[in-house]
């Protein structure tokens, strides 16, 4: 049995995202998994995802942080509400703001390993902080304000 | 004669970036042009660059802001130094931090129109602020701290 990612539970109409949509075959297919109160993600950059040769493109790092953070926000709110992820009504977050600090040049080759947690959970907004490691070295930090899509938008 | 973009002037070894490298055929090929003290960029998202259907993926917006901002930083420093862009020693910036506020859902279809300016120019760091419009509507704002690659890294 394949392990289920948070993104596998998104309703179909919200599963076309270039970053994490399971229905977007041209996309990055970022997948996030719950691990206690945190969420983790492992992402393998492609050879073309270069910045300066040998290092990962910052826009890709921002993209993976973005989608992993909105997934983490959904997981955190399901947990706060004592609900199984994917149970009705579905939770889907979009990004209100994104901040990335590039702490070190990120080597291109090994997977990016992300670890995120929700640090503030409001009724509509969730703040998610992320550490991004390569080979165990902290290379970037992200902070995302994720905003809940209103239930009225679900078909 | 094709108009020359700031990115056309980057040394070859720094022209492989997924976001703006003219030598990265799988990449986005972001191109930035000087317009007085500002720099402008027009970028056409591809159909797969979707977030929720009908809207542009936030990670793509972050990527375009990223590369347009480092280009704007280079242009601003050439200008400050009274030099022609591309003259020796070459200037190339990377991203130290990236912040994006997503003000409105950005419709997918028309080009993204970016307008950037350097608001602080230090000896190593340049702060670049960007407004991103679609159909004349301000959809996102970016703020990037761009960091100069030391001359010693140029071959």
General description of the model:
The structure is a homodimer of 155-residue chains. Chain A starts with 32 loop residues before the first strand and ends in a 7-residue tail after the last strand. In chain A, a hairpin with a 3-residue loop joins strand 4 (112-121) and strand 5. With 155 residues, chain A is of the alpha+beta class. In chain A, 15% of the residues lie in helices and 33% in strands. Chain A has a 6-stranded antiparallel beta sheet, covered by helices on one side.
The number of distinct β-strands of chain A equals: 6
Largest interface, per-chain counts? A-B, 38 and 38 residues
Structural class of chain A: alpha+beta
**Approximate helicity band of chain A:** 10-25%
Rg of chain A (CA only) = 15 Å
**Amino- and carboxy-terminal Cα gap of chain A:** 29 Å
Brief summary:
By secondary structure, chain A is of the alpha+beta class. Chain A has one helix spanning 58-80; strands at 33-35, 38-43, 93-102, 112-121, 125-134, 137-148.
